[in-house]
Specification:
Two copies of one chain form a homodimer.
Chain A lengths: L8 H8 L6 H21 L3 H17 L6 H8 L2 H8 L26 E2 L9 E8 L10 E5 L20 E5 L5 E6 L5 E2 L5 H8 L5 E2 L2 E7 L6 E7 L18 E2 L2 E3 L19 E5 L2 E2 L6
Parallel strand pairs in A: 1-5, 2-12, 2-13, 9-10
Antiparallel strand pairs in A: 2-5, 3-4, 3-8, 6-7, 8-9, 11-12
Family (chains A, B): Belongs to the intradiol ring-cleavage dioxygenase family.
InterPro entries (chains A, B): Catechol_dOase_N, Intradiol_dOase_C, Intradiol_dOase_core, Intradiol_RC_Dioxygenase
Pfam family, one (chains A, B): Dioxygenase_C
Chain lengths: 291, 291
Amino acid sequence: MRNVTKDNITDAFQGYMGKDTDPRLKEVLMSLTRHLHAFVKEVNLTHAEWEKGIEMLEWAGEISDKERHEMVLLSDLLGVSSLVDMVNTVPGGTSSSVLGPFHVSGAPPIPLGYDMKRHYQGNVLLATGVVRDMDGNPIEGAAIDIWQTAPNGLYSSQDEEQDTYSFHGIQTVGADGRYAFTTVKPVSYEVPTDGPGGALLDATGRHAWRPSHLHFIVKAQGYRTLVSEVFAADDPYLDQDAVFGVREDLVMHYEDMPAGTFPDQGFDLSGKVEGDWLRVQFDLTLVRETA
Amino acid sequence: MRNVTKDNITDAFQGYMGKDTDPRLKEVLMSLTRHLHAFVKEVNLTHAEWEKGIEMLEWAGEISDKERHEMVLLSDLLGVSSLVDMVNTVPGGTSSSVLGPFHVSGAPPIPLGYDMKRHYQGNVLLATGVVRDMDGNPIEGAAIDIWQTAPNGLYSSQDEEQDTYSFHGIQTVGADGRYAFTTVKPVSYEVPTDGPGGALLDATGRHAWRPSHLHFIVKAQGYRTLVSEVFAADDPYLDQDAVFGVREDLVMHYEDMPAGTFPDQGFDLSGKVEGDWLRVQFDLTLVRETA
């Protein structure tokens, strides 16, 4: 197209694509481009603003490496990552929520009733629940990959004091679908603020806090893998998670339990918890792959 | 907002922004986010597709440095850069077109009639024209920063054989607004294809060619700076410029001139051009800063 104008450039882009272009790639690129073009026209983006955007992306590139993924953080802070979770959530199944950059693959298996807290100090938290299908039946053999911050607010990958799989473990459920482990309550923390993500937060008067959460990935044969998080109903940042991860069905009440009431069997800590403790219970509902 | 959903996440993003956020920044970010969110919802973007997008951006970051700006190339290939030029073009003024990554600042002044071709081989091209305002009056003192490829298709910054300001120069016009220089006809060339820009072209069956063009930046006191390019009407890539830079008013006819007709005064080459030569004429219309 010789005379490209602001009215036909989106069509010109489409026209450039070859016949053999993968239809789904074409659909995604067309929609992306249509929306980027509409954005530029809607705000009459200036050259200086375009340059600022390029500068932010180049900065994100510079600051990123194998451990740090600033492009992911920008996507998170703009709500794009959470929206991808949402459009892939099936009603009736547990909501997806952001994976985040702190998952470590290859965590060791942990038995039912395991104490993830180990030598760390803090109130005991007992987490229990059942992995179910959409009809409410337990899913035998489902594996739950669990990870969270230590009491200092750091994940093992951020903290030289922790070993690689500290506060990480994979629990496989039996015929009753039940999982159970003890830990400490995760804490709220800030996302990294020394890159363009932080500059974005700063320029828009936003804080960097995420409400405390337990992460998990649940895998079971024949079901969609669920990546999600569970939040505590009393967290001060619940209404303003910097990365938009909170969903109604993921907010759980952590119950204060009086001294002397910890279960006397079935847990590593049975017989060892004398003071107050906390309990949280949540079931995880998986969606069949064919759904 | 506690229960963030795909229907309210765009509002949640807006709600997060502080009262003291710059109103223009707020407008730009709101529009960008609304369109990114609409894109994700429209195509039901999968996690795998989102990851691919992040991977492309991370690759662009890795391959970029002070000399190479892959984020700019991605913006160019998606038509975003050209659209920014278009929304900032005022009707009646010469159209803007992409700056591109090959401009070198600080080029030396060149006198009227200068030969930019110097020792390079190739048919002589004489380029002339007048810098005018919207009423057609010449603009005295306007400075035209000109650059182009050498006959091998490379800009000086890409080519060890050329000195820094090879095929670069700044000409300042007099009271008649007239500029004039000789050179060789620029050649078509390919944008870099060894990064994510190339992967995008490849996946969509697109070539990497740009039609040949003369670049220029025109500056004059009281007028908007014009960044643009002039194309040749016979270029085979004119209808499919990889970066969407072609505009109707920027396509010029290069006239074949018979031997012995080169002007006999007023040019470095006067008296030295015996064979055929080429002529192109284009006026440059600037827009007042206040328009």
